[in-house]
Amino acid sequence: YLITNYSEFQLASVGTFLLHESVFFLSGLPFIVLERAGLLSKYKIQGKINTFGAQERCIVRLMLYHFFVNLPVMLVSYPVFRYMGLRTDLPLPPWNVVLSQIVFYFIIEDFVFYWGHRILHTKWLYKHNKQIVHRYATPFGLTSEYAHPAEILFLGFATILGPALTGPHLFTLWLWMTLRVLETVEAHCGYHFPWSPSNFIPLYGGADFHDYHHRVLYTKSGNYSSTFTYMDWLFGTDKGYRKIKALEVESKHA
């Protein structure tokens, strides 16, 4: 139906934008409701509650960023993806191709994001750019994309690099984007549930790992990875987090 009624450009640009907005807000807004209503508070990582005004400012700014930064970027990026081999035709790619590409995208994204994120936390860049996202020391789902436009473009490069290199089917691109949005919303949700992915997926960071990054502000917070934790482990930027977790374990057994 989609390829019959819409052009490849419409699907790859506007369609991708609409899918992103749907997944992002439908997965992020429930955490605002949980926080405001005090539901499932025993799973909340921090005791602090964001004010309604702070949540409202976040949503307004996000809408401005999405329509005036994200959408234009998606529109102008189409020729690049088309050149790299993006396609929308049938049949859909086999599952093993989709799976291998998604795994590749996660690896590439983690590597590029880690170094980009770490650089943004150097003193000068943090002062002029990165501190915007850290206005929310107690993150909630939607704060995952609350950032300076320059950071959105810089770190967004990590997300699109993998697809740009492989020229995937649009179905694979949409699946990757959906998984990446759900991952970053979960990492910023502020809740560590028994069913959180980090409890089941080895090396997966999740909300507890990333929440530490927001609590310890400025240039030495650590935990710079996006999805998995191995980059922080390899380069020793998770030492503060590991120390706190060890102290928590000791206090429980005291």
Question: Your description of this structure?
Answer:
With 254 residues, the chain is an all-alpha fold. The protein has one domain (1-88, 97-193). The chain has helices at 2-5, 8-37, 52-84, 95-120, 123-128, 149-166, 170-187, 206-215, 230-234, 239-253. Helix 4 runs antiparallel to helix 6 (149-166). The N and C termini lie far apart (62 Å). The relative contact order is 0.14. The model has no long low-confidence stretch (mean pLDDT 88). Its EC number is 4.1.99.5. One of its GO terms (cellular component) is endoplasmic reticulum membrane. It catalyses: a long-chain fatty aldehyde + 2 NADPH + O2 + H(+) = a long-chain alkane + formate + 2 NADP(+) + H2O. Keywords: Endoplasmic reticulum, Lyase, Membrane, Transmembrane, Transmembrane helix. InterPro entries: Fatty_acid_hydroxylase, Sterol_Desaturase_Related.
Q: Could you give a quick summary of the protein structure above?
A:
The protein is an all-alpha fold. The chain has 10 helices and no strands. The protein has helices at residues 2-5, 8-37, 52-84, 95-120, 123-128, 149-166, 170-187, 206-215, 230-234, 239-253.
**Strand tally, please?**
0
Helical amount: 55-70%
Low-confidence stretches: none
Question: How much beta, percentage-wise?
Answer: under 5%
How do the helices and strands follow one another from N- to C-terminus?
HHHHHHHHHH
Q: How large, in whole angstroms, is the Cα Rg? A: 19 Å
Rough outline: globular
Q: Which secondary-structure class do the elements indicate?
A: mainly alpha
Main beta sheet: strand number and arrangement? Answer: none
Q: In DSSP terms, counting alpha (H) and pi (I) runs of 4 or more, how many helices? A: 10
How much is the average pLDDT? 88
Kindly, what is the distance between the CA atoms of the first and last residues, rounded to a whole number of angstroms? 62 Å
Total domains: 1
